[in-house]
């Protein structure tokens, strides 16, 4: 055996454990789930559907699914841009070399994403209860006369979920931008300043273009995460009022585990989520990456 | 350096192999079906609510240990939602050996779980439990094709509980709320609201608990005998929905958003009453400052509805033996405790308010004892009396689907949608779910 070949084999040897794990834990269940999505029936009485794509066709008549799809996209369209812009601004502020207590600010903003999803959802639910802290505070400041029924109305309940998401994930994305900012050559920013560009122009024309790959990455990750949103819908609002805050993942959980288990249909929904994530990621790649 | 390569390669290969093998492990499951018992005197139990169900199980353990010294229970706390998810997961994957010997199941879920998963719960045909000692309405939940699958435990028998001091302030007594109709209830409730500023009822927005209680009190259901949803053209449901809307519109019922807030309304005294299963009595009694100021009575009945009664139930649960459980030991244990020990019920009643469905327990002295908190009423004896008259509730397999669809409709109706179209939508939602 030549040293070259042996080195190769060693490399493969180290790769195999991880590859085997991913294959067994991820890819195999994915294939199984796809096969499952072609079956109909409740519980264990499963048969292949006729026609095979029956579950996928069924989606088009499912009013509840359409509602949850709409809800999920509302979260996506409103929350992701706000969060990423906020994260970008915060990262720039923290990147200022003259800023004091930098470590403290960075930790404080990043800390929410170390909190468990369930507990932060429950804290938000308590805060926004009819007799909760937020209402007490607003009434104390005489901004409202009557307590607002935050979680009992569609609009405000969605607002609370979006607020929760922004609170929890902004710091997470900010850290990515901070890391990317470290890699920007400071001389380019100096050059812009010498040429007389103001702070905003420098940021917009010099910093942002150099952050593009990272912005693309965070956008794709956030899209992926939001489309699979479950915890907030489950813990904060239980999907209410009348399903208007329920996400797709919450609906598929309910279908598969809480109600009469329609696992075939649930799998079809999970595949629809996968396709949506793939399509959106592809679009973002095309739009955001001009390198090809 | 050369020497190091081969061991590393071997090590990595072995690691990969062992991981792959362990990942595929647990495949060989030998479902013994109706375990024979292996001389082991320990039973595993899954149930929720430490103050109520777990406590009752621990007391049952003590009762059984008197004749079976080696007997032990191994109880795990599992909230109901998780328990249902666990049952589904275990049944779907066929790993029945992961089931405990005994678990508690919500009555409304029995039909669904037993019909979807015939290998999940053991029939109690040979358990020796005398089912004639349980009321029909309660047994019906866990009876499938004439076979019993559950030992009824937690009574969901419904009560109206009211603050007598608030009633007095407006010139009423508990008798004015006994054996009445909902229209009378609303009329008096409005009067009390005007005089004392206190609503006499609260409920969680988007929860159909009260509607379901009204429906059952008139012997109604969301399904017909064949299991088809009957959410539209259901006079009993229409009456219940109209009553609920009137309760909300008149301010007699105040809606809140969560269970905690609901409990808070009467514990902190902002609402002067509630309507729920008897298990709520434990919660009411946490407001120690209100001792002696509460009394209970039966439910108002729906106006102008055939078969309307003043009795209903909300929830409740029964003990099931799993298909892989130690059937002999588990059935003997349940037979001698929850279906055969007045001593057990006498112990758990005052502590947890655990009213027995097992009728012989109702004859015991403990049940007849006046409860100081409830103005010296013998509330537990009263409730056992109510329990005998609760109409049978046809839950069907799709109970939870229908209940949630009606909850969503209710939310829309309260927000102003017309009842007919909201219920029609609920009907089509359930029909779709059943397709």
From TrEMBL, chain A:
Q: Does the keyword Transport apply?
A: yes
Swiss-Prot/TrEMBL keywords: Cell membrane, Membrane, Transmembrane, Transmembrane helix, Transport
Q: Which Pfam families match?
A: BPD_transp_1 (PF00528)
Q: Give the ABC transmembrane type-1 domain ranges.
A: 69-284
CDD domains cross-referenced by the UniProt entry: TM_PBP2
Protein name, per record: Lactose ABC transporter permease
List, alphabetically, the GO terms of the cellular component aspect: plasma membrane
The UniProt similarity line reads:
Belongs to the binding-protein-dependent transport system permease family.
Q: The organism sits in which domain of life?
A: Bacteria
- PROSITE patterns, from UniProt? ABC_TM1
Signal peptide start-end: none
The UniProt transmembrane annotation reads: 12-31, 73-95, 107-128, 159-181, 202-221, 263-283
Q: Does the keyword Transmembrane apply?
A: yes
User: Which membrane topology term applies here?
Assistant: Multi-pass membrane protein
The listed locations are: Cell membrane
Just give the chief location class. Answer: membrane
- Share an example GO biological-process annotation for this protein: transmembrane transport
UniProtKB/TrEMBL annotation, chain B:
Question: What is the protein's species of origin?
Answer: Tessaracoccus aquimaris
Q: What is this protein called?
A: ABC transporter substrate-binding protein
Keyword ATP-binding set for record: no
Keywords in alphabetical order, please. Signal
Q: Does the keyword Protein biosynthesis apply?
A: no
InterPro entries attached here? Bact_solute-bd_prot1 (IPR050490), SBP (IPR006059)
Entry's SUPFAM superfamilies?
Periplasmic binding protein-like II
Q: Where is the signal peptide?
A: 1-23
């Amino acid at each position: 055996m030549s040293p070259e070949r042996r080195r190769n084999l060693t490399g493969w040897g180290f790769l195999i454990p991880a590859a085997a794990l991913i294959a067994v834990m991820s890819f195999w269940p994915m294939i199984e789930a796809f096969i499952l999505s072609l079956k109909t029936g409740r519980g264990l009485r499963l048969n292949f559907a006729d026609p095979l794509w029956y579950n996928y066709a069924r989606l088009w008549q499912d009013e509840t699914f359409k509602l949850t799809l709409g809800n999920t996209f509302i979260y996506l369209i409103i929350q992701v841009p706000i969060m990423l812009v906020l994260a970008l601004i915060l990262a720039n502020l923290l990147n200022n070399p003259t800023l004091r207590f930098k470590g403290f600010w960075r930790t404080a903003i990043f800390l929410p994403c170390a909190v468990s999803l369930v507990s932060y959802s429950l804290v938000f639910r308590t805060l926004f209860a009819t007799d909760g802290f937020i209402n007490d505070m607003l009434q104390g400041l005489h901004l409202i006369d009557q307590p607002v029924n935050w979680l009992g109305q569609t609009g405000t309940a969605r607002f609370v979920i979006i607020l929760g998401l922004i609170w929890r994930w902004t710091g997470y994305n900010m850290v990515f931008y901070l890391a990317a900012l470290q890699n920007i050559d400071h001389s380019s920013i100096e050059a812009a300043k010498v040429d007389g560009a103001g702070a905003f122009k420098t940021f917009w024309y010099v910093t942002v273009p150099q952050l593009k790959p990272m912005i693309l990455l965070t956008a794709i990750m956030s899209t992926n995460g939001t489309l699979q949103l479950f915890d907030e819908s489950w813990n904060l609002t239980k999907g209410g009022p009348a399903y208007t805050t329920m996400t797709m993942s919450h609906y598929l959980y309910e279908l598969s585990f809480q109600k009469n288990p329609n696992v075939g249909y649930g799998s079809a929904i999970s595949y629809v989520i996968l396709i949506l994530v793939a399509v959106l990621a592809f679009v973002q790649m095309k739009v955001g990456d001009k390198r090809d | 350096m050369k020497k190091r390569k081969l061991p590393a390669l071997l090590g990595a290969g072995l690691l990969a192999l062992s991981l792959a093998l362990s990942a595929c492990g647990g495949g060989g499951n030998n479902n013994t079906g109706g375990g024979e018992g292996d001389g082991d005197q320990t039973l595993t139990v899954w149930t929720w609510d430490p103050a109520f169900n777990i406590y009752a199980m621990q007391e049952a353990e003590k009762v059984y240990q008197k004749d079976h010294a080696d007997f032990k229970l191994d109880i795990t706390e599992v909230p109901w939602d998780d328990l249902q998810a666990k049952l589904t997961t275990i049944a779907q994957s066929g790993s029945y050996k992961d089931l405990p010997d005994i678990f508690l199941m919500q009555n409304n879920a029995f039909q669904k779980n037993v019909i979807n998963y015939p290998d999940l719960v053991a029939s109690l045909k040979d358990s020796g439990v005398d089912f004639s000692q349980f009321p029909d309405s309660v047994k019906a939940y866990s009876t499938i094709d004439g076979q019993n699958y559950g030992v009824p435990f937690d009574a969901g028998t419904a009560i109206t509980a009211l603050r007598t001091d608030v009633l007095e302030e407006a010139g009423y007594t508990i008798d004015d709320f006994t054996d009445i109709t909902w229209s009378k209830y609303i009329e008096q409730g409005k009067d009390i609201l005007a005089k004392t500023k206190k609503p006499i009822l609260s409920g969680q927005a988007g929860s159909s608990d009260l509607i379901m209680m009204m429906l059952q009190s008139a012997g109604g259901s969301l399904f017909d005998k064949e299991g088809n949803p009957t959410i539209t053209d259901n006079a009993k449901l229409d009456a219940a929905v109209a009553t609920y809307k009137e309760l909300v519109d008149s301010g007699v019922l105040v809606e809140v958003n969560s269970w905690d807030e609901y409990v808070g309304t009467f514990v902190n005294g902002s609402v002067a009453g509630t309507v729920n299963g008897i298990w709520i009595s434990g919660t009411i009694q946490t407001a120690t400052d209100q001792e002696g100021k509460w009394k209970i009575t039966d439910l108002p009945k729906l106006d102008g509805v055939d078969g309307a009664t003043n009795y209903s139930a909300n929830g409740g649960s029964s003990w099931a033996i799993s298909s892989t459980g130690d059937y002999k030991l588990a059935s003997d244990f349940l037979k001698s405790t929850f279906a055969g020990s007045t001593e057990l019920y006498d112990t758990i009643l005052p502590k947890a308010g655990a009213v027995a469905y097992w009728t012989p327990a109702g004859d015991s002295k403990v049940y007849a004892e006046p409860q100081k908190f409830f103005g010296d009423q013998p509330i537990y004896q009263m409730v056992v009396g109510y329990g005998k008259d609760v109409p049978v509730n046809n839950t069907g397999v799709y109970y939870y689907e229908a209940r949630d669809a009606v909850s969503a409709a209710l939310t829309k109706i309260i927000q102003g949608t017309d009842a007919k179209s909201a219920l029609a939508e609920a009907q089509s939602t359930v029909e779709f779910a059943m397709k």
